[in-house]
Structure formats: C-alpha cells, structure tokens
Amino acid sequence: MSGSLELRGVAKAFGKTEVIKGVDLSVDEGEFCVFVGPSGCGKSTLLRMIAGLEDVTTGDVMLDGVRINDVAPAKREIAMVFQTYALYPHLTVRDNMGLALKQAGESRARIDQSIAVASNMLALGDYLERRPAELSGGQRQRVAIGRAIVRTPKLFLFDEPLSNLDAALRVATRIEIARLHRELGATMVYVTHDQIEAMTLADKIVVLRGGRIEQVGAPMELYNNPANTFVAGFIGSPQMNFLRAGALGARGETMGIRPEHLAISATAGEIGGRISHVEKLGGETLVYVRTEVHGLLTVRLFGEHDFTVDAVAFLTPDQARAFHFDTAGQRLR
Amino acid sequence: MAQARGNIGRSIAAHAVLIAYTLIALFPVFVIVVNSFKSRRAIFANPLALPWPEHFDLVGYTTVLKQGDFFQYFLNSMTVTVASLFFVLLFGAMAAFALSEYRFRGNTLMGLYLALGIMIPIRLGTVAILQLMVAAGLVNTLTALILVYTAQGLPLAVFILSEFMRNVSDDLKNAGRIDGLSEYRIFFVLVLPLVRPAMATVAVFTMIPIWNDLWFPLILAPSEETKTITLGSQVFIGQFVTNWNAVLAALSLAIVPVLVLYLVFSRQLIRGITAGAVK
C-alpha cells in the first residue's frame, strides 16, 4: 500500500521571499525519511507542500511516479499527524479516526474494521467513545496517529508530532512510532528540529538550512561523514567542537572534533584552558573548558568523574577522528 | 504583609469604583421600572419613591396593552433584531474566516475597507438609504430594517471575529482538509464552535443598538404593521401632553426581551471578553 515520493526541483516563494529554494529528493517505498533543521529552515513548509496544504511555486511533487501538484490534499492518499494533535473536539475518538473514510464514502463495516485494527495497534480500545478533551496529551497523539493509520495511506506525514509531549512520553511515543513503521512497512516523512528524534527514527535524514538541502544520508553516514560544518554541528549531541585549525597546525580553516574524542588531563595536553562548568549525568560527565584560542569546548567522558570548576585543564584531540573544513565550511577530505 | 494589605486596599478601591459605576448605570433603569408601577400623581410628587401600596397603580400597563397593538410591536422588534443578528453573525463570520484564512491580493485592504464602517455612522447615509428603499419598494417593510441593521452590524463583527479566527489552530483546519472536509464544513463544523465566545460578544454588541433604535424604524418603517417597540412607545409622547405612565410601562416591558437575549449570550460573553486575558 505504501508508495514512493519524489521531489523534483521543488521551490516555494511567498511573494518575493523564497522559502524553499529548489529541493530534489527521493524517498523509497517503506523508507522512514526525517527532515531536520533549525526553525525557519523550511522543513514544515516542505512537508505541507507534500501534503498539498501549500501550493508548489515551481517543480514537481511525485507520488508513485504520478505528479500530484494539483491534487487536493484529501485525494493524495496521504495522512498527516500534527504537532498540536488537531483532533476534532466535537467528535469521539472513534469518529475522529473514521472521519476520513466516511468522507471517502467507505462502508460502515469497512470503517469499523479499520478503526478496530488501528486501535488495537495503539491500545486505544478503551477510549473509543471518549472525546479528545477527556484524554491526556500522549493519548491524544496516539489517536492522531491512529487517525492516520486508519486511512492506510501511501505516505505518512508527521509534523513535529512529539514536540508537545513531555520528555518521558516523547521517548515512549518515539519508540511507538518506530514500531509502527516496522509493522506497517509504510513510507513516512517526519519533520523535527530535534536531532535525537532524527537519529533514532530515520532510515534517511535530510538536513535542511535556509530552504536548501545541506546533506542527505543515513544517520550514521551523517554522523561519521558530515559534508560541512552545519551538518557536523547539527548532528550529534552534545554539539561538535570547532577548533581553529591554524593554531593546531592542522589542515583547512576549522577542525571539528566530537566531545567524546577530546581527552582531558590536569597536567599536559595540546590545548590549555580552565574548566568553566561540569555536568554530571551519571552515565556520562560533560566538562566545559574555556580556552583562549578556541572558545568554549565540550568534553564528554563516560562514567562519573570529579572536576573542580576553575581548575586548569589540558585537552588533546584524537587526530584520527577529527574533521577538517575549509573557509566556506565545506569538508576537506 | 504590607504587600497583602496594599492589595486589599487596591481591591476595595477597584470595587468601590465598579459599584459606583454600576449604580450610575442602573439608576435610570431603576427609575423607569419603579415609576411604571405608580400613579401619575405619585410619579410627579416623588419620582424616586418606591411604589408603596397607596401609590401603586398599573394604569400605565393597562393603557399600553389596550392602546395600539403592542404585541405586534414586540413581535416586529423581535423579528428585526433576531433576523439582523443572524445575518450579521453569519456573514460577519464568513467574511472574517476568508480574511483570516486565505492569502489573496488585497486581503489587508479588504479588511480595512470592511472595518471602515466602524468609524463612519450609517445614519450619514440615511437619505440615500431611504431613496434606495423607495426605489426597491421596501419602505414600510421589516426587510428594509433588517437589511440596514445587517449592514450596520457587519463592520464590527468582521473586525472582532477575524481577530479571533486567526487564533484557531491551523493544524485543525489542515487536518480537516486532509480528511476531505469541504471549506464550508471546516468553517461551520470546526471553526465556528471554537469562536463561539467571540460570536456571543458580537451578538450582544450588535443586538442592543438594533433593539433600541428609533431612527430607522421612524424613517423606513413607520406604518402600524411594521412599528417596532421603541417607535410604538412614542405614541404616548405628545407635543403637549405625555402619558408618562404608559411611556414608562412600555419601556419597562421593552427591557424584558433584550434582557432575556442577553442572558442567553452572557455565559458565552464573559468567556469571550476574558479569552485574551486569561489563558
């Protein structure tokens, strides 16, 4: 039932402001594709263009090889899950889930069967006769996901679905979405600003900035092989450290090193500085070191460690795992 | 402690001001209702006295109910008010939805144009309106009044409602579009229930001037069959003699329906006024 999506030179302008500046992308059948980027990068606009909620200024949106630029949202065989759940407040959970099929003129029996399948999948059976106001945030988002499943669409679209949930629920729902993707084998396009969601869910991550694609690839590909400083800084948490290559005698303008690849010592090392803050998370310890040449650097250590704020510290990057970038921020290979 | 006492003092002051305002606002109503139950002599002798048994007199009400067709006047007022209200809310909400939801050339300009009516009183156009109604053969019909009042109420309705409609979740409307609801269904089923408090606010602001209006009924529909209650009460006000009992009784009666309508809307209204403040 799932389909493949292709974007060909898709662009969007509001008046003279270009929001999406020519995007080419293909998402294969059954793939989980995540659009990630800072706010204002155009990821939500791009998703809404795929959904048909925004017009495409130029370029083509193809679903299963068919151009759907001018097809109404309801006829595109897509389903969308929104950040604010967007459940119909006047309808019960059952009617919320069944509305799209009812609008499409499906038989009562077929609708009931689809709702039963979806509510089983999401453990919503007990809530079918309730209204959205009587549900918690997590339950509402499950209903919204259920409403998408009921339609058996070619393409699932998720617009920051976890942003309104609290941290614990976010993790649980994230796992739930990953499970659903495996069970349904459906093609999914997912928008988020949270790189952890992107890393954990995606088969393919699309990093966007200023309406352009910066890099496309599998999560580990982006992590191990970023194309530029933007992607390198965006993927991975805590953020990659950027050091001035000249001061270290390294290639290029900037040298990137992940916090876990910086060794810290109280006595000797390449870069001297003072510890400005320590975050102990139990499983790992983050040490922030203020250096004169490179600014604030983050060191990630596993396990518990004791450091005194304001103490002198020396850092040594693991040269084998460093990334080198030119003045324009492009990766030197 | 000083903080807490300061708050109590401020609260007392605020309540004193509000109570004083309430008394001033209610005083004329109180005088009308009280005097409508008194004999003519008592009204003039002591206008502020309560209708004690020795002055108690229903002559005003009996006159009102005997003379003229007051039930018909009530019905006319009610028809005009309710019909105008219905059209103002329907068209106002529709225009507001279009202005807040769709991007089109001249959107802002159209919004300003529609809001212009708030600043320009419709009575300035009375002569033209009268000519128009004469030409259309609508003089002495309730339709004429309903049309004029709808036009009069629309600017404020569009202005207030479009502000509220901008706050309705885009996601909800988009979910409706993806589920295949028509724009009309999205408007009537998803958006309207969410702006109900604003609709009630607009209803009250629109309803009261229409119910109280004397100008347009006098000019456009003064015939016996189309008289509204405000115009009907004028028969008791003569150039030389005014039947105060009847006037006051008619006015007291005229308060009742509008009060009922207000109570219907008021629960929603309070939520509407405070919607922006607390949330």
Automatic annotation (TrEMBL), chain A:
GO terms for cellular component: ATP-binding cassette (ABC) transporter complex, substrate-binding subunit-containing; maltose transport complex. Keywords: ATP-binding, Nucleotide-binding, Transport. Residues 5-235 form the ABC transporter domain. InterPro entries: AAA+_ATPase (IPR003593), ABC_transporter-like_ATP-bd (IPR003439), ABC_transporter-like_CS (IPR017871), ABC_transpr_MalK-like (IPR015855), ABC_transpr_MalK/UgpC-like (IPR047641), Mo/tungstate-bd_C_term_dom (IPR008995), NA-bd_OB-fold (IPR012340), P-loop_NTPase (IPR027417). GO terms for molecular function: ABC-type maltose transporter activity; ATP binding; ATP hydrolysis activity. It comes from the Bacteria. Pfam families: ABC_tran (PF00005), TOBE_2 (PF08402). SMART domains: AAA. CDD domains: ABC_MalK_N. The keyword Hydrolase does not apply. Belongs to the ABC transporter superfamily. This is ATP-binding cassette domain-containing protein.
TrEMBL record, chain B:
Residues 74-265 form the ABC transmembrane type-1 domain. The keyword NADP does not apply. It is a multi-pass membrane protein. The keyword Metal-binding does not apply. It comes from the Bacteria. Its main location: membrane. The chain crosses the membrane at residues 12-34, 73-99, 111-136, 142-165, 186-211, 246-265. GO terms for biological process: transmembrane transport. Keywords: Cell membrane, Membrane, Transmembrane, Transmembrane helix, Transport. GO terms for cellular component: plasma membrane. It is found in: Cell membrane. Belongs to the binding-protein-dependent transport system permease family. This is Carbohydrate ABC transporter permease.
